[in-house]
## 1
Amino acid sequence: MLNIFDPYAEAVSEYKQQQRLRQLRQIRTLPQGRILVDGIELVNFASNDYLGLSQHPKLKKRAIEFIEKYGVGSPSSRLLSGNLECYETIENKLAALKGTETALILASGFQTNSTVLAALGQKGMLLGSDRLNHNSIIQGLISSQSAWFRYKHNDTGDLDSKLSKKTVNHYSCKWIISESVFSMDGDIADLDGLRNTASHYGAGLYIDEAHATGVLGKNGMGLTAQNKLADISMGTFGKGLGSFGSYVACSHIIRDFLINRCPGLIYSTALPPSVLGAIDSALDLIPTMENERSRLLTNAMDLRNRIKTLGFDCADSDTQIIPIVIGKEETALSLSRSLEKQGFYVPAIRPPTVPEGTARVRISLTLDQTKEQLSALIEALKSWHEKKD
Ligand SMILES: Cc1ncc(COP(=O)(O)O)c(C=O)c1O
């Protein structure tokens, strides 16, 4: 008789054979862009804490103040007794920064995409999603009641040709879904093109600003801030804003609808007060960090140019996320291991996280790495490149 664990043991063994077994490593974050990985000190190129806010004294201070005032946990979901008074202030602040009627805070970006899209996508509707959108978006599509399709990455021509099919008129409502900064390629969506296509077909535009929030756009609040390009945008507080959680910036109608229909909001405990304190403080700081953003993006441009000069492929990266696309999984692993031996933590990203044949190492640049560390990384890449040839 089949042991209940056999299918899982088989899957794990298959991953091992294919050298695709993911494993958790023991991490401790150290100052100055460094990290301890399984006890070994490396320069960290795998952090989304782009502005270093997770260690900022002002965020820590307000997190502690909120703990003192409200305690360490929330008593329930927001709809029961978890909607602490501070939510209103923070959501108003957020909406003002995004230039939207209102905003709604949820527990994580994954929860937001996977459950907001599930709620928005009703029967008889159609959802069109960029082929490289994050897995949380895909989970939202799968859980929705809508029909859905994927269009070629950042290709409004392909999107248009899919939407121009006659049968599309049968759908009562359409949504186009894209990231503004793509998480694995670091390229930027053609937001004007998406807006035009959406308007042409009477569709709504839903934009994921997870990797743009804090870094790009008006006051660092993402590429849809203050410009009405998106009908709904979401973003996370767990990357550029240094703590945890997620938001939806939207109209009053969408907010009311989500409060009534979004399972991630209704059936999950509200964020802990410490996190709300950190979010509140980050929203005060972010608009004042124009110089830091400019330094981060200049460093990213310089680093990308130097990597390209070595003959590597950085896809269409135009941001602080810089992939080095290698192709074969074994080669991407070999590069990542070689960099690790030389003192740099730059994980390999392989299928199914990225499409087959596009395995890569992915550099996440933050304000923490020094010029010397960046130059040393270039030398390490050069050394691997020369040995490989
Ligand atoms: C594009 C994108 N959207 C959503 C998420 C999920 O956000 P969170 O980490 O807050 O769950 C991520 C996380 O990596 C992401 O890259």
## 2
Amino acid sequence: MNDALNLLKTRRSIRKYKDQQVEEEKIQKCLEAAQWAPSASNKQPWEFLIVTDEQVRKKLSEIHPYARFVAKSPVVFVPLTNPEVHPKYHKSDTALATLQYMIEAHSLGLGTCWAGVIGSSIETEIKELLGVPENLNVLGLVATGYADEEPTKTRKELDDLVHYEKY
Ligand SMILES: Cc1cc2nc3c(=O)[nH]c(=O)nc-3n(C[C@H](O)[C@H](O)[C@H](O)COP(=O)(O)O)c2cc1C
């Protein structure tokens, strides 16, 4: 197995975190990984917010019904999309940047879990809490920290997903 495939296959969503700080240099590398994602016409319709404040993380965990774990992850990466920069592809481009952040985090020994936000009823509340300008969207919340669990996951079989030449 080559290195990229190994990284991609061994990344798991982590929902339990150790009480251990994340080194600033590691977060910087994850942000660089996001920065270098591909995007339609290289428009880069994204901005990134990093939240470490314990009280703010606790509030986020109370607002998001499926992201209780952000109260315990020392860092929360918040990918923001700008629909004005690319109305058609702002979400998919920023999703790629988010995945690149997550893969780099995994390569550095960090766990992450993405919790979706964009288009949900809680997005406005999260924007208000984090002071996100009106013209931007919150794609999601990405908990980041040292894993305190080793979950396993399965995937659908390739045979059931792949078609060659014609469907
Ligand atoms: C767009 C998106 C939204 C997600 N939202 C949540 C969420 O709200 N809460 C959660 O616990 N996990 C969330 N996840 C994580 C998925 O549940 C997880 O990726 C999936 O179960 C596969 O597991 P794995 O990431 O360990 O391979 C989300 C993932 C994506 C890509």
